[in-house]
Write a structure and sequence with these properties.
The chain is α+β, with helices and mostly antiparallel strands and 243 residues long. The protein is 26% helix and 30% strand. The two termini are 22 Å apart. 23% of the residues are buried.
Length: 243
């Protein structure tokens, strides 16, 4: 396979992965607290036999993805169990695989009166315990520091809110959950807003523009490969006639 074809296919593979990422961002425009993602690519140099100044080729390799952790806009819902995080903090929830972290504050009460995610994972308090509430005692109030009180009484629980020194290294687990290799630290730059949810920070116009740009580049590369293939066929035919 000639160098032009190899380089063209390398670019097309990178463009396909980029398009998949853009499509995933657009599909999650309405997902609470979703963070937009972008592919990271790196140039890879390959030595080619033959020596000389053109004895190497540059390919594009996939290095992973970058996640935009900026806070999305807040959507007021009025729900007493809807909580938005203003700042870089995360809620802590208990799962069969251990503690996981989320910014999706759309919570509910299960049949046992525990505060849980929509998937049923218990939300943990500052002492890493499940939070059980009885809303029949009165209206629920959640302060900016996570203190929970019911019926105007004293504090019953305090939501556990944590932050990470390297949030880019969080591993996405699905259902708005993240796993962390590093130990979290208590949140000092975050506060909570009851009755609101954080929207996705995906910018649809920007993503659509990127999609159009990637599509055009892919088509241009395909035309280049087609011309290169046609030229190779003609060259082989001419060599065959000359022989």
């Amino acid at each position: 396979m000639d160098q032009i074809t190899l380089l063209g296919l390398s670019q097309q593979m990178a463009l396909r992965r980029t398009m998949d990422m853009i499509a995933n961002n657009l599909a999650n425009m309405s997902t609470t607290a979703y963070k937009a993602e972008q592919m990271i690519f790196e140039e890879y140099l390959v030595e080619v036999e033959g020596g000389g100044p053109e004895s190497s080729m540059n390919f594009v390799i996939d290095k992973g993805l970058a996640r935009d952790h900026s806070v999305g806009r807040f959507e007021v819902t009025g729900g007493s169990l809807d909580i938005a995080v203003d700042g870089p903090g995360f809620f802590v929830v208990d799962t069969p695989e251990g503690p996981r972290y989320t910014r999706n504050g759309h919570f509910e009460l299960d049949t046992e009166g525990r505060l849980v995610t929509t998937e049923g994972h218990p939300v943990l308090d500052a002492d890493s315990r499940a939070i059980s509430l009885d809303l029949e005692d009165g209206p629920l109030s959640i302060a900016g520091d996570g203190t929970i009180s019911v019926g105007g009484g004293g504090a019953q629980f305090k939501l556990q809110l944590v932050e990470f020194s390297r949030p880019a290294e969080l591993e996405k687990q699905g259902n708005s959950l993240f796993a962390a290799a590093e130990d979290p630290i208590p949140a000092e730059r975050s506060s909570l807003v009851q009755g609101a949810l954080e929207s996705s920070n995906v910018q649809p116009i920007l993503e659509m523009s990127r999609m159009i740009e990637v599509s055009r580049t892919y088509e241009s590369t395909a035309r280049l490969l087609e011309r290169a293939s046609s030229l190779s066929v003609k060259t082989i035919e001419r060599l065959g006639r000359a022989a």
